[in-house]
Amino acid sequence: MTDLFDVADKCVAITGGAGVLGGQMARSLAKRGAKVCVVDYDAMRAHAVCKDIEAAGGFAIPVQADVLDKAQIQEALGCAVESLGRVDVLINAAGGNKKEATCLPPEQSFFDLPLEAMQWVMNLNLMGTILPSQVFGRHMAARGEGVIVNVSSMNALRPLTRIAAYSAAKAAVSNFTQWLATYMCQNHSPAIRVNAIAPGFFLTDQNRFLLTNPDGTRTARGQQILDHTPMGRYGEPEDLVGTLLWLMSDASKFVTGVVVPVDGGFSAYSGV
């Protein structure tokens, strides 16, 4: 059973690898023996994550890259291959929301959401998944094997009020995950698998303004979310690790094209 979930010596690239969720993934995988390339737009944050990993005895390299710049992604692949030898797994963890793309009545209605803000959210979440999948996916196609794990969201399954652009973008990520899984199997190799994790509610820099007050107490929205989460709490970044290990390892070798909720039961609860 231990061997089935083994990720030791797997070479992993993580976009958004210095974020709250991506950083935890990087640290957890390195702790289990994976070699990690931390890809992030913020070089200092990427270096900090890699220092944590090295201090704990793991192996990691930081690479600065914008997931919306294909040339930079290509350079990130080159750095990863040069340092790790290959890339077995791509984790697309880059993403986020923007306050300006959020309906906040009465100050900002849906009808007044600026195009630039909505486009920013759509680009970061959707194109920020597609472009790395093109670049790293080509590398996997040439090798005939590999794993891509996308990060979708509970918003893709249950669209939430206020965040129209983010919900639409993550729904597109889930759809793209299924599309790419089929494409890779039919056109390149059935040993290339593509799946996604759909986290429930995790406190991050992008959603904190919606879920908590300046003094740290819950907003009405934050309380409503917990009331509709049977486990009664927000997720912790560590809660994603088990599902990630399953999707990366031979434990899921006949699994492709699925989106796995990790949500404390939110998607199962009707509210009554």
Low-confidence stretches: none
What is the arithmetic mean of pLDDT? 94
CATH structural architecture of the largest domain: 3-Layer(aba) Sandwich
Helix tally equals: 9
**Overall morphology:** globular
CATH superfamily of the largest domain: NAD(P)-binding Rossmann-like Domain
Q: Could you say how many structural domains there are in total? A: 2
Helix content: 40-55%
CATH topology of the largest domain: Rossmann fold
Main sheet record: 7 strands, parallel
Broad CATH class of the largest domain: Alpha Beta
What letter string, H or E per element, gives the SSE order?
EHEHEHEHEHHEHHHE
The fraction of residues assigned to DSSP E strands is 5-15%
Return Rg in Å: 18 Å
Strand sequence of the main sheet, in spatial order? 3-2-1-4-5-6-7
Q: State the distance separating the first and last CA atoms.
A: 39 Å
Structural class: alpha/beta
Strand segment count? 7
Describe the protein.
The protein has nine helices and seven strands; from the N terminus they run E-H-E-H-E-H-E-H-E-H-H-E-H-H-H-E. With 272 residues, it is α/β, with parallel strands linked by helices. It has two domains: 226 residues, 3-Layer(aba) Sandwich (Rossmann fold), CATH 3.40.50.720; 29 residues, no CATH class. The protein has a seven-stranded parallel β-sheet with strand order 3-2-1-4-5-6-7, sandwiched between helices. The protein is globular and about 55 Å long.
Keywords, please?
Rossmann fold, 7 strands, 2 domains, alpha/beta, globular, single chain, 272 residues, seven-stranded parallel beta sheet
